[in-house]
What does this fold into?
Amino acid sequence: MKMELAALIRSMQRDIMKRKQKHAAEQLNELSIKLAEDHFTLAALGQFKRGKSSLMNAILGSPLLPAGILPLTSAITIIKYGPVEKLIVSQDNSLFKKELPIEQLAEYVTEKENPSNIKQVRSACIELPLPILRRGVEFVDTPGIGSAITANTATTYSFLPQCDAVMFVMSADSPVTSTELDFLHSISSYVEKIFFVINKIDMVEASEVEQILDFTGTLLSKELHCQDILLFPVSAQAGLEAKCQLDETSICSEWFESVGGRISFVSC
It folds into this structure.
């Protein structure tokens, strides 16, 4: 199948070159590279302060990405496999990439150190020797949408065409806002595969979890005209703490008990 796709791309590239369509040629070239490198881009999207960075940290098992109370992320952060830990920063105002220690990430991707992305960071790429990344999965942390910082929303929209799928992160303490619904409608033309994550379930009573899931699922089904909405309820903070303590089984047990033993809604 990969060989057939590669042949199709080459055929399209020849046709595009004859038509001198530069933008289309660049897109096909990027697609060809992605196919050759065999990687899959999964981005975390959502309204600001829903815990996207915290969720990424929980998946990676380390507090690598800045997380906090205020809107933090101002630029795209890519996490991919590499034999050694390092940070590579690409900027629009420079032809050369910077190779830096991972500890300097906040200087380039946070609103405090890089407000409205004044440093013109195209992307900050973290390379890590983690098994979860070895098979070509690339995780992407994006700026939150819906804050007063419009540049951050624009950055997220501009990255969407490069995504193969997205994790849309919502929050249990503030289920589905009109901003989130508008965003979901607007990205439907870019991304077909969406995983819906409800973060911060540890911030609501166990008796409320089921109600939140039913309300959110029903609303999303109606708005997106899809009957099979799967919701993944998580606590990114608790998950990260469990991984850091190398005790994932205990936290999974706590989640299971908190939702009354019903675990079917977190299976694919």
In short: DSSP finds ten helices and nine strands in the chain. The first strand starts at residue 40 and ends at 45.
